[in-house]
Amino acid sequence: MAKVRSGEPHTVDVEHDRRREKVSDLGWTTEEERRGFSGSANHPGVSGVLARHARPDSPKLPKNSMTLAEARAWTFRVVDTWLRTLATEHRLELTRPVRGDRQA
Q: What is the pLDDT of residues 4-19, one digit of tens each?
């Protein structure tokens, strides 16, 4: 898990925290969705200049590509599942609803 310092930007590597298991192997998403997310994030035809590993000669668009809105929703869903899993593993109670949680 990433170390977070107050006031500094940070990232958290979900798969690293889960001992390098793919989120699809954990049952948090399907392999098809995971590949669609990864392919979309890396392809300039989908993500434009925001593509992570874009090359001008990239092959055809990935199967099941995601829009930016779909990728954000997928990311929130996976991170929400990860946080709830950590809370359960460490017997912590979530005191605030996670973003997008519709439960009262």
A: 344 444 445 555 565 5
In this prediction, residue 60 carries a pLDDT of: 78
Q: Tell me how far CA of residue 61 lies from CA of 36, 58, 69, 80, in angstroms.
A: 10, 8, 17, 28
Report the C-alpha gap between 15 and 80 in whole angstroms. Answer: 14
Find where tokens 């690293």 sit. Answer: 16
Q: If you ran DSSP here, which 8-state letter would residue 62 be given?
A: P
Distance in angstroms (rounded) separating the CA atoms of residues 47 and 34: 16
**Which residue range is the domain that position 20 belongs to?**
14-89
Whether 28 contacts 82, CB under 8 Å: yes
| 24/12 Cα distance (integer angstroms) | 17
Determine, yes or no, domain membership for 95. Answer: no
At 49-72, the pLDDT tens digits run 778 777 766 677 888 899 989 999
